[in-house]
Amino acid sequence: MRVVTETANYGYFANSVDVENPNKLVPSVSPANFSGPELFHRLLGKCYNLTEERYRYTFCPFQNFTQYEISPRWNAYQGILGIWSHWHIENNTFAAMVFKNGDQCGDIDRSVKVSLKTRYVCHKDALVVYPRLSSELQKEWNHLLTELHYGDITKKGYQVGLEKIFQKAGLADTNPTKRPETTTTATSLKEGDTFIDLQTCNKQYKNLKDEIARLSLELEAMKLMLDLSKMHNRTNKPFRVTSSQ
User: Which residues form a coiled coil (predicted)?
Assistant: First the structure.
Protein backbone atom coordinates (compact mmCIF):
# COMPACT_ATOMS: atom_id res chain seq x y z
CA MET A 1 0.00 0.00 0.00
CA ARG A 2 1.18 3.50 -0.76
CA VAL A 3 -0.20 6.28 1.40
CA VAL A 4 0.85 8.73 -1.27
CA THR A 5 -0.15 7.39 -4.65
CA GLU A 6 0.50 10.46 -6.77
CA THR A 7 2.41 13.73 -6.59
CA ALA A 8 0.66 16.22 -3.45
CA ASN A 9 -0.24 19.08 -0.75
CA TYR A 10 -2.59 19.07 2.36
CA GLY A 11 -4.39 21.31 4.75
CA TYR A 12 -5.00 25.00 4.47
CA PHE A 13 -1.31 25.85 4.96
CA ALA A 14 0.13 22.87 3.12
CA ASN A 15 1.12 22.72 -0.52
CA SER A 16 0.53 19.06 -1.48
CA VAL A 17 -3.26 18.76 -1.56
CA ASP A 18 -5.33 17.57 -4.48
CA VAL A 19 -8.08 20.20 -4.76
CA GLU A 20 -10.56 17.78 -6.29
CA ASN A 21 -9.79 15.07 -3.73
CA PRO A 22 -8.74 16.68 -0.41
CA ASN A 23 -7.96 13.27 1.15
CA LYS A 24 -5.29 12.58 -1.44
CA LEU A 25 -1.68 13.66 -1.02
CA VAL A 26 0.31 14.57 -4.09
CA PRO A 27 4.16 14.36 -3.78
CA SER A 28 6.36 16.60 -5.91
CA VAL A 29 8.69 13.74 -6.92
CA SER A 30 8.57 9.97 -7.21
CA PRO A 31 10.34 7.86 -4.57
CA ALA A 32 13.80 6.53 -5.35
CA ASN A 33 14.31 2.86 -6.11
CA PHE A 34 14.75 0.36 -3.30
CA SER A 35 18.33 0.09 -2.07
CA GLY A 36 20.21 -1.23 0.94
CA PRO A 37 20.31 -4.60 2.72
CA GLU A 38 18.07 -7.15 1.03
CA LEU A 39 16.44 -8.05 4.36
CA PHE A 40 14.61 -4.69 4.22
CA HIS A 41 12.95 -5.56 0.91
CA ARG A 42 10.12 -7.17 2.87
CA LEU A 43 9.19 -3.70 4.14
CA LEU A 44 8.47 -2.43 0.62
CA GLY A 45 4.73 -1.81 0.23
CA LYS A 46 4.02 -1.76 3.97
CA CYS A 47 3.15 1.22 6.18
CA TYR A 48 3.35 1.87 9.93
CA ASN A 49 1.39 4.40 12.00
CA LEU A 50 2.37 6.30 15.13
CA THR A 51 0.03 8.66 16.98
CA GLU A 52 1.48 11.27 19.31
CA GLU A 53 -0.78 13.87 20.94
CA ARG A 54 -2.78 15.38 18.08
CA TYR A 55 -0.75 14.08 15.15
CA ARG A 56 -0.67 10.74 13.35
CA TYR A 57 2.50 9.86 11.45
CA THR A 58 2.51 7.24 8.71
CA PHE A 59 5.82 5.73 7.68
CA CYS A 60 5.98 3.73 4.44
CA PRO A 61 9.56 2.44 4.00
CA PHE A 62 11.07 3.25 0.62
CA GLN A 63 7.95 5.26 -0.27
CA ASN A 64 7.02 8.25 1.89
CA PHE A 65 6.48 9.75 5.34
CA THR A 66 3.26 11.68 6.03
CA GLN A 67 1.67 13.60 8.91
CA TYR A 68 -2.02 14.11 9.74
CA GLU A 69 -3.41 16.46 12.34
CA ILE A 70 -6.12 14.86 14.47
CA SER A 71 -8.43 17.83 14.83
CA PRO A 72 -12.10 18.67 14.17
CA ARG A 73 -11.19 22.01 12.61
CA TRP A 74 -11.84 22.39 8.90
CA ASN A 75 -8.24 23.16 7.93
CA ALA A 76 -6.47 20.44 9.90
CA TYR A 77 -3.00 19.81 8.53
CA GLN A 78 -2.34 16.83 6.30
CA GLY A 79 0.97 16.76 4.51
CA ILE A 80 4.03 15.01 3.22
CA LEU A 81 7.08 15.15 5.44
CA GLY A 82 9.31 13.45 2.90
CA ILE A 83 9.65 11.09 -0.06
CA TRP A 84 12.13 8.20 0.05
CA SER A 85 15.48 9.44 -1.26
CA HIS A 86 18.62 7.66 0.00
CA TRP A 87 20.50 6.20 2.94
CA HIS A 88 22.48 8.19 5.47
CA ILE A 89 25.75 6.25 5.73
CA GLU A 90 27.89 6.72 8.81
CA ASN A 91 31.08 4.82 9.67
CA ASN A 92 30.48 2.75 6.51
CA THR A 93 27.15 1.42 7.80
CA PHE A 94 23.51 2.14 6.92
CA ALA A 95 22.65 4.54 9.75
CA ALA A 96 19.27 5.97 8.70
CA MET A 97 16.73 6.29 5.88
CA VAL A 98 16.42 9.79 4.42
CA PHE A 99 13.10 11.15 3.12
CA LYS A 100 13.21 14.57 1.43
CA ASN A 101 11.22 16.82 -0.94
CA GLY A 102 8.30 17.08 1.49
CA ASP A 103 5.88 20.00 1.80
CA GLN A 104 7.42 23.43 2.03
CA CYS A 105 7.89 25.00 5.44
CA GLY A 106 8.87 28.58 4.82
CA ASP A 107 11.82 28.56 2.42
CA ILE A 108 12.77 24.90 2.90
CA ASP A 109 11.22 21.54 2.07
CA ARG A 110 10.36 19.22 4.93
CA SER A 111 12.55 16.15 5.33
CA VAL A 112 12.78 13.18 7.70
CA LYS A 113 15.62 10.90 8.81
CA VAL A 114 14.50 7.53 10.16
CA SER A 115 16.93 5.59 12.38
CA LEU A 116 16.33 1.84 12.51
CA LYS A 117 15.76 0.16 15.90
CA THR A 118 14.91 -3.48 15.41
CA ARG A 119 16.25 -6.90 16.32
CA TYR A 120 16.93 -7.54 12.65
CA VAL A 121 19.71 -4.96 12.65
CA CYS A 122 21.22 -5.66 16.06
CA HIS A 123 23.99 -7.81 14.62
CA LYS A 124 27.10 -5.70 14.09
CA ASP A 125 27.40 -6.77 10.44
CA ALA A 126 23.72 -6.44 9.51
CA LEU A 127 24.07 -2.89 8.18
CA VAL A 128 27.63 -2.89 6.87
CA VAL A 129 27.72 -1.30 3.41
CA TYR A 130 30.73 -3.01 1.81
CA PRO A 131 29.24 -6.56 1.44
CA ARG A 132 26.15 -5.06 -0.25
CA LEU A 133 28.18 -3.49 -3.07
CA SER A 134 28.89 -5.06 -6.43
CA SER A 135 32.32 -6.60 -6.99
CA GLU A 136 33.31 -3.67 -9.24
CA LEU A 137 32.43 -1.09 -6.59
CA GLN A 138 34.22 -3.16 -3.95
CA LYS A 139 37.34 -3.01 -6.15
CA GLU A 140 36.98 0.78 -6.38
CA TRP A 141 36.72 0.96 -2.59
CA ASN A 142 39.82 -1.25 -2.20
CA HIS A 143 41.71 1.01 -4.60
CA LEU A 144 40.71 4.08 -2.57
CA LEU A 145 41.94 2.44 0.63
CA THR A 146 45.25 1.62 -1.04
CA GLU A 147 45.71 5.20 -2.23
CA LEU A 148 44.86 6.49 1.26
CA HIS A 149 47.30 4.07 2.87
CA TYR A 150 50.21 5.19 0.67
CA GLY A 151 49.33 8.85 0.98
CA ASP A 152 48.31 9.32 -2.65
CA ILE A 153 45.04 10.92 -1.51
CA THR A 154 43.98 12.78 1.63
CA LYS A 155 41.25 11.68 4.04
CA LYS A 156 38.99 14.28 2.46
CA GLY A 157 39.74 12.89 -0.99
CA TYR A 158 39.00 9.41 0.31
CA GLN A 159 35.60 10.52 1.64
CA VAL A 160 34.77 12.22 -1.65
CA GLY A 161 35.66 9.04 -3.56
CA LEU A 162 33.63 6.95 -1.13
CA GLU A 163 30.60 9.19 -1.60
CA LYS A 164 30.85 8.70 -5.38
CA ILE A 165 30.87 4.93 -4.87
CA PHE A 166 27.75 5.15 -2.70
CA GLN A 167 26.09 7.28 -5.37
CA LYS A 168 26.91 4.72 -8.09
CA ALA A 169 25.36 2.04 -5.89
CA GLY A 170 22.16 4.11 -5.53
CA LEU A 171 22.66 4.49 -1.78
CA ALA A 172 23.60 8.16 -1.46
CA ASP A 173 21.95 11.39 -2.55
CA THR A 174 22.86 12.14 -6.17
CA ASN A 175 21.39 15.65 -6.01
CA PRO A 176 22.63 17.19 -2.76
CA THR A 177 21.70 20.74 -1.91
CA LYS A 178 24.22 23.08 -3.52
CA ARG A 179 25.76 25.85 -1.48
CA PRO A 180 25.71 29.37 -2.91
CA GLU A 181 28.76 30.05 -5.04
CA THR A 182 31.23 32.68 -3.90
CA THR A 183 34.07 34.41 -5.68
CA THR A 184 37.66 34.55 -4.51
CA THR A 185 40.46 36.79 -5.75
CA ALA A 186 44.17 36.18 -5.54
CA THR A 187 44.63 39.03 -3.08
CA SER A 188 42.05 37.57 -0.69
CA LEU A 189 43.53 34.08 -0.54
CA LYS A 190 44.91 33.01 2.81
CA GLU A 191 46.32 29.80 4.18
CA GLY A 192 43.64 27.10 4.12
CA ASP A 193 41.53 28.83 1.43
CA THR A 194 40.34 26.87 -1.60
CA PHE A 195 40.76 27.94 -5.22
CA ILE A 196 37.36 28.57 -6.72
CA ASP A 197 37.98 30.13 -10.14
CA LEU A 198 40.36 28.72 -12.75
CA GLN A 199 42.33 31.94 -13.18
CA THR A 200 43.19 32.11 -9.48
CA CYS A 201 44.05 28.41 -9.41
CA ASN A 202 46.43 28.73 -12.39
CA LYS A 203 48.15 31.76 -10.87
CA GLN A 204 48.68 30.06 -7.52
CA TYR A 205 49.87 26.91 -9.29
CA LYS A 206 52.51 28.91 -11.19
CA ASN A 207 53.66 30.57 -7.95
CA LEU A 208 54.01 27.19 -6.26
CA LYS A 209 55.83 25.74 -9.26
CA ASP A 210 58.34 28.62 -9.24
CA GLU A 211 58.84 28.22 -5.49
CA ILE A 212 59.53 24.49 -5.88
CA ALA A 213 62.05 25.19 -8.65
CA ARG A 214 63.84 27.75 -6.45
CA LEU A 215 63.97 25.38 -3.49
CA SER A 216 65.27 22.59 -5.75
CA LEU A 217 68.19 24.78 -6.88
CA GLU A 218 69.02 25.68 -3.28
CA LEU A 219 68.91 22.00 -2.32
CA GLU A 220 71.27 21.06 -5.16
CA ALA A 221 73.64 23.84 -4.11
CA MET A 222 73.63 22.58 -0.51
CA LYS A 223 74.36 19.02 -1.70
CA LEU A 224 77.29 20.29 -3.80
CA MET A 225 78.71 22.22 -0.84
CA LEU A 226 78.38 19.15 1.36
CA ASP A 227 80.21 16.95 -1.18
CA LEU A 228 83.03 19.51 -1.54
CA SER A 229 83.33 19.68 2.22
CA LYS A 230 83.69 15.89 2.44
CA MET A 231 86.34 15.88 -0.28
CA HIS A 232 88.26 18.63 1.49
CA ASN A 233 88.23 16.67 4.73
CA ARG A 234 89.55 13.57 2.98
CA THR A 235 92.34 15.34 1.10
CA ASN A 236 93.52 17.29 4.14
CA LYS A 237 93.46 14.32 6.49
CA PRO A 238 96.98 13.78 8.00
CA PHE A 239 98.85 10.62 7.02
CA ARG A 240 99.36 7.93 9.57
CA VAL A 241 102.54 5.83 9.11
CA THR A 242 102.75 2.41 10.64
CA SER A 243 105.63 -0.03 10.58
CA SER A 244 105.77 -3.76 10.89
CA GLN A 245 108.56 -5.79 12.31
Answer: 198-225
